[in-house]
Amino acid sequence: MEAMFADELEGNIYSRFSNPNVTELIEKIKLLEGAEAGWATATGMAAIFSTFGALLSQGDHVLACRSVFGSTHNILTKILPSWGIETTFVDFDDTKNWDKAVRKRTKLIFVETPTNPGVDIIDLKWLGEFSSAHHLINMVDNCFATPYLQQPIKYGTDLVIHSATKYLDGQGRVLGGLIAGKKHLIEKINGFARHSGPALAPFNAWVISKSLETLAVRMDRHCENALSLSQRLERLSQIELVKYPFLPSHPQYKVAKKQMNAGEGIISFVIAGGFKRACIFLDHLDLVSLTANLGDTRSIATHPVSTTHAKLPTPDRIAIGISPGLIRLSIGLEHVDDLYEDIEQALRLGH
What we know:
By secondary structure, this protein is an alpha/beta fold. It folds into two domains: 213 residues, 3-Layer(aba) Sandwich (Aspartate Aminotransferase, domain 2), CATH 3.40.640; 136 residues, Aspartate Aminotransferase, domain 1, CATH 3.90.1150.10. Helices cover 40% and strands 17% of the residues. It has 14 helices and twelve strands. It is globular, with a radius of gyration of 20 Å.
């Protein structure tokens, strides 16, 4: 027991440190992502915060894509600055400014791809080469794609982050977070998390581990439904813009096709008429649920301006394309005809 507490011997001494269910889940995510090591946390945000907390020190600098989840933005702009850690946000496709934004104390890059909620795509091959050239830790949120559709480590990513609450569980039952990547970085995260306590519950680990057995089947249906539905939505006059990575109209369509096996299950679209029409549309949905979650068997509609990204300053929201009429649709496993009928009738009644 003394050797275990001294980290000289592996073993299950306390569930905040390790647990057989959690260990099994970590082994699975390592295999799926092609990673050397992994760690599990209570939520996706705990995974992100634990990684920042373990790897960053006073005076360090972070580079991040401008489009990140609202809570991640708050950590980078409100919590880390109190530790003396600064962040520079750069447009995901502005490669010249990424070079200019690197400082002497820049230590880590954080990106989402596809981004939340705009489903923009960052070229992982370019990102891997850029981070290697500048000797930076490369950290990618792979939540939307899952390792079934995209494996960033193949392109030089050092750490992959997941909110396992989303597609990895896939049924809205439990919370969880996962980190996979290089062993020497995971060891630092392990040391930080063991003492700060964002441990994943053993039961939640068991649920997520079981859910991974159906990940391929679920993601195939999510992607099939999302592509079909996005194609139909493009033809509706009440919608100004539809964004889905595997639509030829998507600005990064070629990059998405290169690094993803399918287009994932999230559609982003803008309703003509702005905030008021978006709210009316949401009020008239019957089959599609309303919540801030995603990746469920049920389809979910979210209004980022009033929920997930409500605390972002308006200029920041505008800069990443979050307009008052933007809707994020997480496409579930229902029949696509039923989903289209519900969305079409809500749009029609809303106008």
